[in-house]
């Protein structure tokens, strides 16, 4: 523990387990709290589990808070790979800043099967400050099977401030079958 001029607390935890057949578990945790002069909190967590063959699980989490720059950043990444080429990937990122006044979030999820079927999802959310005063959200999801059938959905939403004073929403969804038959729906609302 340092005096108030520096005033931080640091903790680190690392654990590794390795068996005779190369199976191991690794965990890392790091947390730091700075004084009021810098005022930030940092946390890092990483965990990897790898079985005998190639399947593994990875997780990474990072978070930083700073009053001097005034932002919050979080990153989470998780990968699951099985013995075959099928895998799952997830990514989450969030950042906010009072100086610029926005909040951004990104989430990506992919599931790939042994043959080529996969599922992909993307979500992005941004909130601006009162200076611009709008909210934007985007969501996209694709499902593809072995025979190239897929489902696509897109969602977009924006809310402007009272200076412009309107609300805009857009939703688009397409379903395509093996014979290229599809269904489209578009909705637009303005106030």
Describe this structure in words.
- This protein has strands spanning 9-18, 24-33, 40-50, 56-66, 71-81, 87-97, 102-112, 118-127, 135-144, 150-159, 167-176, 182-190.
- By secondary structure, it is an all-beta fold.
- The protein is flat, with a radius of gyration of 22 Å.
- The chain folds into two domains: 1-69; 84-191.
- It has a twelve-stranded antiparallel sheet with strand order 1-2-3-4-5-6-7-8-9-10-11-12, with no helix packed on it.
- 0% of the residues lie in helices and 65% in strands.
Sequence-ordered SSE layout with sheet pairings:
Blueprint: E1 9-18, E2 24-33, E3 40-50, E4 56-66, E5 71-81, E6 87-97, E7 102-112, E8 118-127, E9 135-144, E10 150-159, E11 167-176, E12 182-190
Antiparallel strand pairs: 1-2, 2-3, 3-4, 4-5, 5-6, 6-7, 7-8, 8-9, 9-10, 10-11, 11-12
Tags for this entry?
single chain; 191 residues; mainly beta; 2 domains; 12-stranded antiparallel beta sheet; 0% helix; flat; disordered N terminus; disordered C terminus
Summarize the structure.
This protein has strands at 9-18, 24-33, 40-50, 56-66, 71-81, 87-97, 102-112, 118-127, 135-144, 150-159, 167-176, 182-190. It has 191 residues and is mostly beta strands. A 12-stranded antiparallel beta sheet has the order 1-2-3-4-5-6-7-8-9-10-11-12, with no helix packed on it.
């Amino acid at each position: 523990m340092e005096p108030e001029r520096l005033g931080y607390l640091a903790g680190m935890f690392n654990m590794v387990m390795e068996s005779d057949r190369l199976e191991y578990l690794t965990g890392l945790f790091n947390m730091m709290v700075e004084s009021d002069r810098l005022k930030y909190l940092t946390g890092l967590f990483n965990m990897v589990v790898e079985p005998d063959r190639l399947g593994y699980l990875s997780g990474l989490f990072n978070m930083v808070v700073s009053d001097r720059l005034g932002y919050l950043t979080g990153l989470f990444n998780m990968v699951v790979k099985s013995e075959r080429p099928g895998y799952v990937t997830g990514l989450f990122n969030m950042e906010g800043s009072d100086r610029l006044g926005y909040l951004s979030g990104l989430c990506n999820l992919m599931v790939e099967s042994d043959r080529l079927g996969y599922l992909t999802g993307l979500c992005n959310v941004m909130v601006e400050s009162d200076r611009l005063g709008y909210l934007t959200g985007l969501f996209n999801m694709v499902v593809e099977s072995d025979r190239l059938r897929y489902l696509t959905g897109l969602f977009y939403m924006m809310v402007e401030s009272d200076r412009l004073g309107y609300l805009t929403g857009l939703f688009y969804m397409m379903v395509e079958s093996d014979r290229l038959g599809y269904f489209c729906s578009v909705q637009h609302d303005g106030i």
